[in-house]
Amino acid sequence: MEIVLGVGGGIAAYKAALLLRLMTEAGHGVTVVPTANALEFVGAVTWEALSGRPVRTDTFEAVDEVNHVRLGRRADLVVVAPATADLLARTAAGMAPDLLGNVLLTATCPVVLAPAMHTEMWHHPATVANVALLRERGVTVVDPAVGRLTGTDSGTGRLPEPAEIWERAQAAAAAGAPRRPRASGTDAEPTPGPLAGRTVVITAGGT
């Protein structure tokens, strides 16, 4: 299975390294796509060493490979951990300011978001609405755990343990890609072309 592991800019990013290990040890190919803020917590060297693949964050890196489209299209599963309140909001709004945002817009495979933030952020009406909208669209949003947060704070908003996230991700992958509603005005089936129903054989060679 080809997996994209997105990493948001929160202190819980260190747990994503353990999640990455679970994925690779299960024999899956994993491309890590962190946000720029995520690299403030865990550097690119760590992600590259654990995944065995290069790490990029910007849409304009490796333009010749069309990464901003290719990664999402070829993925069998996209998991984002941690997903910050800001990342949830941008995803719900369809914004793509970086490579991860583009991956989330182009992916047609199952998408799993594992939020991590302070309790007040999780319960904020904007976050509640964003989570509801994402779930309505078929995205799996894992409820955060209750426990120690940044500093001395405790409450709802802790990133679930990597094993739990991986279990939910595997279940989402097994269930298949989410059914996405057609955009307005695209309900009609495509008109058959002149070769519809015909078999065509194309050969090429020295002759």
What does this structure look like?
The chain has helices spanning 13-25, 44-51, 67-74, 85-93, 99-106, 119-123, 125-136, 162-175; strands at residues 2-7, 29-34, 77-83, 111-115, 140-141, 145-148, 154-158. The chain is of the alpha/beta class. The protein has one domain (2-175): 3-Layer(aba) Sandwich (Rossmann fold). It is globular and about 75 Å long. Mean pLDDT is 87; it is low at 181-189.
List the helices and strands and how they pair.
Layout lengths: L1 E6 L5 H13 L3 E6 L9 H8 L15 H8 L2 E7 L1 H9 L5 H8 L4 E5 L3 H5 L1 H12 L3 E2 L3 E4 L5 E5 L3 H14 L32
Parallel strand pairs: 1-2, 1-3, 3-4, 4-5
Antiparallel strand pairs: 6-7
Helix pairs in contact: 1-2, 1-8, 3-5, 4-7
Main features:
two-stranded antiparallel ribbon; 37% helix; single chain; 8 helices; 207 residues; Rossmann fold; 5-stranded parallel β-sheet; alpha/beta; globular
CATH topology: Rossmann fold
What quaternary form is this? single chain
Q: Shape from CA axes?
A: globular
Structural class call reads alpha/beta
The number of domains is 1
Unreliable segments of 5+ consecutive residues: 181-189
- Rg, rounded, reads 19 Å
What is the CATH class? Alpha Beta
Superfamily (CATH H level) name: Flavin prenyltransferase-like
Biggest sheet layout: 5 strands, parallel
User: How helical, in percent, are the residues?
Assistant: 25-40%
Task: Count every beta strand, where a strand is a DSSP E run of 2 or more residues.
Answer: 7
Topology pattern, helix = H, strand = E: EHEHHEHHEHHEEEH
Number of helices: 8
Task: Compute the separation of the termini in Å.
Answer: 40 Å
